[in-house]
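=== Structural record ===
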Amino acid sequence: MSAPLLQVQDLEAGYGAIVALHGISLTVNAGEIVTIIGANGAGKSTTLNAVCGVVRARRGTVTFDGRDLTRVPAHEVVRLGLAQSPEGRKIFPRLTVLENLEMGAFTRRDAAGVKADIAKYYAMFPILEKRKHQPGGLLSGGEQQMLAIARALMSRPKLLLLDEPSLGLAPQIVVQIFDIIRELNKQGMSVLLVEQNARMALKVAHRGYVLETGRITFTDKADVLLNDDRIRAAYLGEEGH
């Protein structure tokens, strides 16, 4: 069996005196959607930020595509094929939709390829083409989320990190976003998904990890977690059955 695309081993990370991750380990294989679920403050976003170098690992290793990323600066991580659509979307509000997409391709020098990819993501997200000359800050929450995902894809990543893509969105837009995640995966994109909507996340993922106060407490195939009474009581209860 080939090595995982992403391997996180005994990762410890945090902010100042606060330790947010207590030696977590996880893997993402090529072609997989893997989700991390957990309560607010469990360390889900910190995990993604530590993987892509925004938060420095204090201990442990992050290996991506056979390379140790543990000391690689965040901007270099993008060049190596790892891109994040961050929590809260963090698009550039004063730049147009088109300029946001061009910023996503900042590591690339193939002008024709960039132009082709912009056309590709306009086809995938038709609303972005309609809004291409509008400032990003004027888009709705759902449109901004689509822009954040498309911007991350513009770097042509091997692994896409998605941090809370459904946060604050209307239910029908959430369904649309998860359909897009499925479609990207069908096209071969590997995805590491952090998501508070545990039911939606486990329905779209192949495997899942449950993170509780900086520690992984469960891991299994997504459908197994979806039907586990403990997981249903802790994370799916409010969403009903």
